[in-house]
Amino acid sequence: MRDELISEIVKRIVKEMSAARENEVLEIVTEISKDRIPIEVSARHVHFSEEDYKALFGIDAVMSKKKELSQYGQFQCKERVMLIGPKGTISRVAVLGPFRQKTQVEITKTDARQLGINAPLNQSGNLEGASGIHVASRELVMEIKSCVIIAKNHIHMNALDAKNLDVVDNQTVSVRVKSERPITFEDVLVRVSDKYSLAMHIDFDEANAAWYCEGDYGEIVNSSQTYKSQENDRQVEKTSHAEEVSTVSKELLKRKLIVEEDIRQIAKKGIDSIYVHKKSIITPLAKDAIRKERIKVLQNAEERGAL
Ligand SMILES: [Zn+2]
Question: How many CB atoms lie within 10 A of CB 157?
Fold first, then answer.
């Protein structure tokens, strides 16, 4: 009797353990599905170049690590700085390590308004058109030129995540934040590197607009095709449009009289410039339609023989 009881207990435990393993596997699978993109909100922060950091904190200053961040090798420092713009200041701004090639300050649109500066919406690392700003430590204030951007939102992932999600590096996708007040962000950049862990990064303006709460997920809603196949489609579209333009042009060059209806048909096909023979007659109504539809008329005498 006792043996039976023990054997029954063992059976149950084994069953529960295998069920737990099954759940574990399921958990991993659901974690990388399109509707379970973890979201992290980036607070305003500064990545310093070594040169600017030492100019601001002293030649012997080293970055003191406060905590590791979710992306491999990135950390937050104990130091904080103040941003000083023409209209206002923002204090206690986080400093992130390690050093970068160039100093990059990432703020929100709201911050930019408060500071009174015009920061562009750029992919992190792209400082084209970036605004300058005064940055202050406890010790001193310095001006850093071309460093302030509003970072475009993006999703970090490794190659395996990208394969499972059917996306590729540098592709853009739309992501719906599944919150109490859902918002779909378009043009979200996919960034693939084996150093990355899966997370979508948005700033506080975006998080607040979407009523983001910790634990809300994002869902990739428009990436049924990979970037490459989209490229191919665009190419095919371009070619077939070019073919259509050329067919229409050849057709028109043969015509002695071009009437309003011809122009209507051309406009409907999305063609914005046409070739006509210089001896062709364009009726006044057709001319009106050309002006209205803003179609460019190029005269071509080369096909004289076709008339
Ligand atoms: Zn990021």
Answer: 25
Q: 197 CA to middle of ligand 1, Å?
A: 10
Distance between CA atoms of residues 223 and 174, nearest Å: 8
Based on the fold, state whether residues 176 and 261 are members of the same structural domain.
no
Backbone angles phi, psi at 94, to 5 degrees: -65, 145
Q: How far is CA 253 from the centre of its chain?
A: 45
Question: Using one digit for the tens of pLDDT, what is the confidence trace for 159-208?
Answer: 999 999 999 999 999 999 999 999 999 999 999 999 999 999 999 999 99
Task: Report CA dihedral (273, 274, 277, 283) to the nearest 10 degrees.
Answer: -90
Helices (H), the chain: 2-31, 50-57, 109-115, 159-165, 204-209, 227-253, 260-268, 284-292
Number of folded domains in the chain?
A: 2
| pLDDT tens-digit series, residues 110-161 | 999 999 999 999 999 999 999 999 999 998 999 999 999 999 999 999 999 9
pTM attached to this predicted model: 0.63
Torsion sign across C-alpha atoms 115, 116, 121, 122: negative
Helix 284-292 crosses helix 260-268 at what angle (to 10 degrees)?
Answer: 20
* Residue closest to 106 by CA, chosen among 208, 217, 201: 201
Can you give the residue range of the structural domain that contains 283? 228-306
Q: Which of 189, 222, 255 is the last residue of a domain?
A: 222
Distance 275 CA to ligand 1 centre (A): 50
For residues 47 and 132, membership in a common domain is answered with yes
Regarding beta strands 199-203 and 154-157, do their DSSP bridges make them parallel or antiparallel, or are they unpaired? antiparallel
Query: What spacing in Å lies between the alpha carbon of 71 and ligand 1's midpoint?
Result: 8
For residue 80, tell me if it sits in a domain.
yes
CA of 221 to the centre of ligand 1 (A): 20
Distance (Å, rounded) from C-alpha 213 to C-alpha 206? 12
Task: Please give the angle made by the CA atoms of 32, 162 and 229, to the nearest 5 degrees.
Answer: 125
